[in-house]
Amino acid sequence: MAKTIYIAGLGLIGASMALGIKRDHPDYEILGYNRSQASRDIALKEGMIDRATDDFASFAPMADIIILSLPIKQTIAFIKELANLDLKEGVIISDAGSTKSAIVDATEQYLAGKPVRFVGAHPMAGSHKTGAASADVNLFENAYYIFTPSSLTSPDTLEEMKDLLSGLHARFIEIDAKEHDRVTSQISHFPHILASSLMEQTAVYAQEHEMARRFAAGGFRDMTRIAESEPGMWTSILLSNRETILDRIEDFKERLEEIGQAISKGDEEQIWNFFNQAREQRQAMEIHKRGGVDSSYDLYVDVPDEEDVILRILELLRGTSLVNIHINEENREDIHGILQISFKNAQDLERAERLISENTDYTVVIK
User: Fold this and answer.
1) Are 23 and 61 within 8 A, CB to CB?
2) Pick from 10, 51, 86, 167: CA 20 to 30 A from residue 196's CA?
3) What one-character DSSP code corresponds to residue 167?
4) For the residues of 88-105, what is the DSSP string, one character each?
5) How many CB atoms lie within 10 A of CB 227?
6) Would you state the pLDDT for residue 129?
């Protein structure tokens, strides 16, 4: 039976979600809310949604499923608003926030006793691009789509959500909201603090040591890439998960102090163990599998500085879906190859490695 789906927030996540739903459920009516007209117009023009509004409350009573793809504070405000609307009995309400405890707590406070179902969610996919114009039906492919059940989640809620979102081709997983926030504070939230802190430190340092800008190479680039993330979103994330993140900051201070003391004492064994343990721990992690916001499959090719060499490689990869191409130009000290090509899945990565290795004598490295 066809359903009516209401997506509030037609940014990259919300609009891409609409495309994924349309892929497997073309008969579903998708309604969209967005404050700015530009994204509403794009979503309508491109057929992502069927109807649009800038009045959130107007479409909510029509929906069988409501997805709030909004900043955390606005999500909580809309949950409070939904509690006072005449919604369909048994409507499913979900969200797409990067932290879960505050949102789950709000629903259990405002929606308790209402004839609605709720399940928190966090699609761990994203891009440096924003807005409905950047929507991609394959954005969530092989990425984790995390559900955080609550007291308002009935046994059939998750199955209905998984069916609705089947066209996203994501990997669904369930986890407690508080545990979700603990885990993401370590592997997502805190790294953004580190990246931005390193950028700020380097920018100040480069005022007196100008060559620091020029010598920044692969390792620095990789560690600071996420410092370009949208500041409003990250301010909201940190403030909605503050205790857990503060704990991670204190823990890291202790680890920095420990290695600092080893350097001060000239303790060669402790310093060696510091780097060796980190190397072994990273190699043991499932860090190369696409499973989170920033995961991708990277291939490095050490190519000569010759005319048309990049075009030759791209011609070999004709028909393969690429996520990104980066040329590591100036400082090769800590990079694996001058040409870095990123793929969405392991199959494309392996195919590319085979094609380049068989047809050239360039060094190919997978990381």
Assistant:
1) no
2) 10
3) G
4) PTTEEEEE--S--HHHHH
5) 19
6) 67
Q: How confident is the model at residue 291 (pLDDT cuts 50, 70, 90)?
A: very low
Rounded-to-integer distance, Cα 167 and Cα 25, Å: 8
Name the pLDDT band for 332 (thresholds 50, 70, 90).
very low
Task: Find, among 125, 253, 124, 138, the residue nearest to 197 by Cα.
Answer: 253
Stretch 27-42: mean pLDDT: 95
What does the pLDDT read at residue 193?
A: 97
Give percent helix, percent strand, percent coil of the chain, each to the nearest 5. 50, 15, 35
- Specify the higher pLDDT residue, 336 or 358: 358
Predicted TM-score (pTM) of the model is 0.79
How many CA within 13 A on the CB side of residue 158?
16
| DSSP states along 46-86 | TTS-SEEES-HHHHGGG-SEEEE-S-HHHHHHHHHHHTTS-
Give me the domains of the chain, ranges plus CATH numbers. 4-175 (3.40.50.720), 180-278 (1.10.3660.10), 297-366 (3.30.70.260)
Q: CA-to-CA distance for 200 and 97, rounded, in angstroms?
A: 27
Query: In this model, does residue 333 exceed pLDDT 60?
Result: no
Q: How far is CA 175 from the centre of its chain?
A: 17
Tens-digit pLDDT profile for residues 237-261: 999 999 999 999 999 999 999 999 9
Distance, in Å, from the CA atom of 60 to the CA atom of 76, rounded to the nearest integer, reads 15
